[in-house]
Amino acid sequence: MTTLSDPAEITIQLVPLDDTFALRKAVLRPWLTPEEARASWEGFEEHFHVGALKGGQIVSTAGFVIEPHPDYGDAFGSVQWHLRGMASDPSLQGKGLGGQVLAFGVAELARRLAAKRQASAALWCSGRTVAQSFYERHGFTPIGDLYETPGTGPHYVFWRRVDAA
């Protein structure tokens, strides 16, 4: 894996949901309209979004939402967060940026758990098989059978435990 030539040019921070849609559309689901993309985040108790900004533009992002997994609720425990919509600009993939965004988000989740006096939570995602080594490097374990998501290919459910800060 190569690294960014000048990591100082990247800022990682919490960002508004609407600011993430252009990158997510380009990388993950180009067929979604802005309205469909927004609707997919409505109705959740809580969510937050992390962005890596380069020149003021989001070049990597990840979303975190309180959402129990429909099949693994008992295995994951009572507090569950879903990692959704993780995407990086293709020209910056493989340089560690996605891992930095994920680490920032996990730290934010740990802070939120502590603020609510929750000891830990399960963090799960539906991850593409091409990203399996990425998720495993960051402490996730696949669970269950391989499944196909229309338009996006084969996936596993990946999960890990996040302890309060």
What report would you give on this structure?
This protein is of the alpha+beta class. The protein has helices at 21-27, 34-39, 73-76, 97-115, 132-137, and strands spanning 10-14, 47-54, 57-66, 80-88, 120-128, 141-149, 153-163. A 7-stranded mixed sheet has the order 1-2-3-4-5-7-6. Strand 2 and strand 3 (57-66) form a beta hairpin. The longest helix is centred in the middle third of the chain and has 19 residues, at 97-115.
List the helices and strands and how they pair.
Blueprint: E1 10-14, H1 21-27, H2 34-39, E2 47-54, E3 57-66, H3 73-76, E4 80-88, H4 97-115, E5 120-128, H5 132-137, E6 141-149, E7 153-163
Parallel strand pairs: 4-5
Antiparallel strand pairs: 1-2, 2-3, 3-4, 5-7, 6-7
What's the pLDDT, averaged over the residues?
Answer: 89
Low-confidence spans: none
| Helix and strand composition category | alpha+beta
Q: Radius of gyration over alpha carbons?
A: 15 Å
Shape descriptor reads globular
Q: Helical stretch count?
A: 5
Major sheet strand order:
1-2-3-4-5-7-6
